[in-house]
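Reproducibility note. Readers wishing to regenerate the assembly model reported in the main text can use the exact inputs given here. Chain order matters: entities are listed in the order in which they were concatenated for prediction.
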Amino acid sequence: NAGVTQTPKFQVLKTGQSMTLQCAQDMNHEYMSWYRQDPGMGLRLIHYSVGAGITDQGEVPNGYNVSRSTTEDFPLRLLSAAPSQTSVYFCASMFQAGTGNTIYFGEGSWLTVV
Amino acid sequence: KNQVEQSPQSLIILEGKNCTLQCNYTVSPFSNLRWYKQDTGRGPVSLTIMTFSENTKSNGRYTATLDADTKQSSLHITASQLSDSASYICVVSGVDSSYKLIFGSGTRLLVRP
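Running the prediction on these inputs yields the following structure tokens for the assembly.
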């Protein structure tokens, strides 16, 4: 069981470039989500998915796209990177959305936009 | 607006001492509350999960308490170790959207020898 795997670990982008942060889980979890973590702030939800083919926006979705074509994968796309998107990104998964379920986080992806 | 406030923002203690971290929330109706430990440069790792009907939950030297009436939770760390140095994050979810988690900004704990 690898858990939640995120790639890349570190990335530097130029303003206006696009890229995809990859997230995969091998626990057959229905729920997957992306968060960003900025200094002095709690993790904020970008997008989430409660199953393959289903995605929805979180608290800070602007500038990001997601898709969920398989149960295992939940990539996060930055369409046109901006310096405000410099952050640490965490992917998370949970067996099912609901009470008592443990949320498993990836190790994070450090993104710098210059 | 649903919020989760943690205190203190940072804390320094000596190895072997106990400490208590606080979490106050306004999420209503409340579903469950989680405490996570986040080491520097790593992803958060679950410590405890409590539903509204639970008052206390332990995980080794970590004991979480919950008072759903006052909307307060605490995380007590006993006999601290150097490896306890980390950020501790309180996470709350509501009944109507249990998959939309609300995160506190965390308490940074430093344990000194």
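We highlight two features of this model. The first strand of chain A starts at residue 4 and ends at 7. Chain A has a mean pLDDT of 93.
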